[in-house]
Amino acid sequence: MIDLHCHLMPGIDDGAASLDVSLQMLEEAAASNISAVCVTPHYNDEMTCLEYDRRFRILVKQTLLQPIRLLRGMEYKYSDLLNLDEFVTLGGSSYLLVDFVAPAIDLRNVENHVLELKRKGYRVLAAHPERLFDLQDIPALKQLARRGVVMQMNTGSFIGIHGDEVKKMAESMLRCGLCHVVASDAHGKTNRKLFVNEAMNYFRSNYGDEIVQTLFHDNSRLIIDGKVPDPVMPSVSLSPFDHIRRLFVGA
Ligand SMILES: [Fe+2]
User: Fold this and answer.
1) How far apart are CA 153 and CA 5, in angstroms?
2) Is the CB of residue 135 less than 8 Å from the CB of residue 169?
């Protein structure tokens, strides 16, 4: 798995508080079968592309002994996109990680800007839309997905870390084919940690193994390769009988 959204950069905004925490997060990532992590702090006026590169190079040197590859990335607010023409993309791909920070944004107005970015060669990966929008926004989210916006949902959303409402929205979006990839959005080692193993277990026990391969592994690779993953339509949740069968025969 490539974790496409992770606040691993030490001492920046509300991400890893220190290098020590970054190293602990990488250890947990290795234990969760993660091969690469995009280091995605929040963009702000001081975090220019040059400043990002400087800090990223230092972090790469400091974590050389870790078995995880670090990739570049930044989490932009939608409003940032309107004022910038130089970006840190995810792993050098064409993708920008974008937080739409609802409810101030009318998703219907986003479409034209997404198309404008596309003309400039950028694609949009929407960061955790399940945390920002409601059921009534699903038609607008579907329209954005048709325009090529790819939806990244958080591990924690599916296991209730962000509350019941977010979990319900995450499951609804998943059933509508609006979850393309799952990433951690981890901020440290306590309440906002990776939760990758926990989320994989959730998907495995509710929808089977295949979807874990697609949402965590295959699609994160496709995005780093600059491709657009197909919508993922999960088969119906496993029945109680299926759960018992998996327990006893491992099928
Ligand atoms: Fe984030």
Assistant:
1) 10
2) yes
Phi first, then psi: give them for residue 223, nearest 5 degrees.
Answer: -65, -45
Torsion 88-94-95-100 (CA) sign = positive
Centre of ligand 1 from the C-alpha of residue 179, in Å: 17
Contacts of 250 (CB under 8 A, 6+ apart): none
User: Ligand 1 centroid to 245 CA: how many Å?
Assistant: 38
CA of residue 41 to ligand 1 center, whole Å:
7
Query: Which residues neighbour ligand 1 (ion) by CB within 5 Å?
Result: 75, 185
- What is the CATH number for 202? 3.20.20.140
What region does 128 belong to: left with phi over 0, alpha with psi -120 to 50, or beta?
left
Report pLDDT digits (tens) over 160-205: 999 999 999 999 999 999 999 999 999 988 878 999 999 999 999 9
Length of the chain: 251
CA–centroid distance, residue 116 to ligand 1 (Å): 24
The DSSP element (H or E) to which 126 belongs, if any, is strand 123-127
Domain hosting 91: range is 2-249
Q: What is the mean pLDDT of the chain?
A: 91
**Residue 238 Cα, ligand 1 centroid: separation in angstroms?**
31
**Total of domains in the chain:** 1
